[in-house]
Design a protein that fits this description.
Four copies of one chain form a homotetramer. Chain A is of the alpha/beta class and about 240 residues long. The first copy, chain A, contains seven helices and nine strands, in the order βαβαβαβαβαββαβαβ. In chain A, helix 3 (about 65-80) packs parallel to helix 4 and helix 4 runs parallel beside helix 5. The interface between C and D is large, with 45 and 45 residues.
Chain lengths: ~240, ~240, ~240, ~240
């Protein structure tokens, strides 16, 4: 592992996708800054990264607070110049429209869209003066499709996609790569496994070709990072080979 | 004019598109319920509709308050069964990302997306038990494209489109027509004329083929209303014949 | 019925959609020119339109022959100025890729895409000098989605959509309304009923909310025709209210 | 360079993109099979690859002849198992619709769409029994947008995209990665430089950020090849960082 003088910040460093991204960028020599609601839960991730010789800091971070995101990114940038910011906060819920409360609609939006806007803007504030950087956002099938029962979640994900597109168009010419990764399948997490089992029974877990391993999402982000600026992708869709789409 | 026992509610009954919609549905025999931030500004519209023999009520309505929307629609429904709800609140702004404040981002979203969610849900609450109704949303070019400087506006419009899609899929089979009208051009309003003149000079106003008359937007909504349920459109895009797209 | 001095040409006047379009435009006073592979099959349609007091001519027309389309449209235009051309030739097939022959791929394309290009161009040739007209194309779900087994059909329908878009952008400013109607469901035809029964059993026919009546397609074309040029739709999607999408 | 027992076939191995792809896969250890209309023009490419220690065969190939494509791929497969087929035949033309002849429309389609269908099918015939492979198609802005004057070109490119999508959905579960690369900018070729100079003057060439180097296209294909099957991309869009989109 060759250390770089560069930080990769992961906002929404959950146990699955977020953790995999953190590990990947750490193993590639980045100083990783990982934030999630309850920073205590990052202890095993930190241990794992450090055991492998990586650099990592963990922080509690309420993505619904502007000052938390700002402070998190500024601290990351003081460690080493912020080169990559990955926004990975999720908030998947499904309710019939008549049962979708203001509270749910607003909270999902604040977590999955508003926080992404703030993360994008505050990363840009640090990267623009330096004339380089990477700002990546995690999207989902619901970024492109408002399915029945997904008014809250899809609305937030559509909104996040617009934020990403808008700043990609503004900051691309300033040498900042903004990308939006659409994960068009379930990711292999405890929550998804549980939900699939409930909906379709135990046999729905039998087919490993239909659940995306978190490490593959991390690999996709790494591909985006490696692209030369003469051939940047804004939107990258990924799905397992067995997925129906 | 043949009076119907039916109400058409217009949320966001501004001087141009909203007013044209109100006039069209009034002339077709609907009892119109028109709401906007400052209800006093609806005086001329009410006078015009009444002079033509139409039925109309005007209300002050803060679309950012859940209770205002709920009360407005319930009152409309007491007048005569709510058959059409048209959500037409706009909030077009353009700022570089670094100058887009939390305040702007949140306010634009509350007006252009969140209020649409509440309007859709509260209309559904009245229409579902009756097994029929129409819920229409006004979209824009920014509903499909996040241009540079449009992080706030496009994010809200993308989000509104997701709300519309999601409830269209849920409520269509319940005989409620949910549609999203994409106006892919400038509308002929005082504000748009002023902005075009500022950007491109007086000659930018010379070509009437490029500014959509509010009455044509109203006519498009009327077409959506008239569709048989065996051939409903969810998304209708319109632009003047001279528009480059 | 008020007769107009105007012709509506229907290329692909099959027993269902095409016939319904012909009847609608006839009843609205157009001189209808109806063409299909075997013109003899148009006898009942002609009888029905004439019985209702309409004007109609029927022709055999091989849509895969440039000279046939050209001659058909020129003859139509001699009857009365060609004001509407509707291209409605279908060619729905499904084969695994390894069983899709050159012959099938080419024939489907010639019928569903190439013929549409020629029909569009030859209509334009007659309409452009007059500074007005309408050119409409029938699309399908496969115009937007290349499903498994649809390499031939979707490829032709995607291609037809591109033709429509390209000439819409070129001819719109010349006052010619070019539109593409996406029928996002099965249409209620003998062939579709048979296929559904085979795939899913007789009960698949029980739900009339999922099969679009040909008359509703015709009504949609009539809506497109009626749009003022200040608010033209290029792409109109329709589906029955009960359709899952 | 570690030699692999695997062939990468490039159909449409022109001087720019095609040559860059051939060089990339050769340097990664593939036996490269390169075909273009006039195989003599491949002499410098072959020399360059061999000088670098790579394996390459060059063939004359008329992509509009089914038997040529079939023979080319079969021969490639006899050399070493066909693992990658990249279809890269272009045919960019722009004509007003009234000047778009049957000859042009048909030829562009045969080159840019029909030949892609045959290449995809014949690759699949070799890959399916082996249970693995990669089939990649080169797309363009015109794959998604039918601009004015592009009826022929966009129609072919839309059609090719449908072919790619359709076989991706069919063959993905059979472990064959089918992808469609959308190059959303001009590529730095002699032809594009000449055209830009003609349209906008010499200064249009000054900005290197707007012309994509062929090697970057090749790098994108290499990224697609490297993706694990648990996270395949079907459609990859690339553009230079300075591009307006």
């Amino acid at each position: 592992m060759v250390a770089r003088n560069a930080t990769a910040a992961v906002i929404g460093a959950g146990d699955f996708i977020g953790a995999a991204i953190a590990k990947k960028f750490a193993v590639e020599g980045f100083t990783v800054f990982a934030g999630r609601r309850n920073g205590d839960k990052l202890v095993p991730l930190v241990a794992e990264i450090k055991a492998a010789g990586g650099e990592v800091s963990a922080r509690s971070l309420d993505a619904r607070k502007e000052e938390d995101i700002t402070a998190f990114l500024q601290e990351a940038d003081r460690q080493a110049p912020l080169e990559v910011c990955i926004f990975n906060v999720g908030a998947n819920v499904n309710f019939p429209i008549l049962e979708t409360t203001d509270r749910v609609f607003r909270k999902v939006w604040e977590m999955a869209c508003w926080a992404g806007f703030v993360a994008g803007r505050e990363s840009a504030r640090l990267m623009v003066p330096r004339g380089k950087g990477n700002i990546f956002f995690t999207g989902a099938t619901a970024s492109l499709r408002g399915g029945s029962g997904y008014a809250a979640f899809a609305s937030a994900k559509f909104g996040l996609r617009a934020v990403a597109q808008s700043i990609a168009r503004e900051l691309g010419p300033k040498n900042i790569h903004v990308a939006h990764l659409i994960i068009d399948s379930g990711v292999d997490t405890a929550w998804v496994r549980e939900r699939r089992e409930k909906l379709w029974g135990k046999e729905a877990l039998d087919n490993p070709d239909l659940l995306m391993p978190p490490a593959s999402v991390a690999a996709s982000y790494w591909q985006l990072y490696q692209q030369p600026r003469s051939a940047w992708t804004f939107e990258l869709e990924i799905r397992p080979f067995g997925e129906k789409w």
